[in-house]
Design goal:
mainly alpha
Amino acid sequence: MNLKHTSRSKMNDITRAQRLIIKQLLEAVQSLPNEEFEKLSNDSYLLEIKVTRKKCLRNVAHKSDTKALSTEIIDVMERFQSREEAMVYLSENIGTRKEIEVVARKLDIPVSQQDKAETLKEKIVEATVGARLRSLAIKGDTAS
């Protein structure tokens, strides 16, 4: 009985995938110019299918959003009184390694491919909060 359920589940998945493919084919054919559409009814033409990844327009907007966000994050980070608070804020407000890299580069922190996201976050915290705390410690100013 469990085997039948598994095979039905796979069959449903295949059917869903097939429906999606047919829908995409239909949309592609409907978007053809009239001249191309007319060629499809001629036996001397061959219909070929090419599978490509969609270009995501939100990535373009995302890049500018990330730069603006990085400036905002740096401004907020410089106000924290402890490294721990800054690290929590950074972890909650930056999701991807790419976003972390943008912030790091904005702070002129060298970034290598081997750096893990957590390492970059630590470098960012040190470049913002850590630098100010070290400066205060050197000056002997503990109140602030």
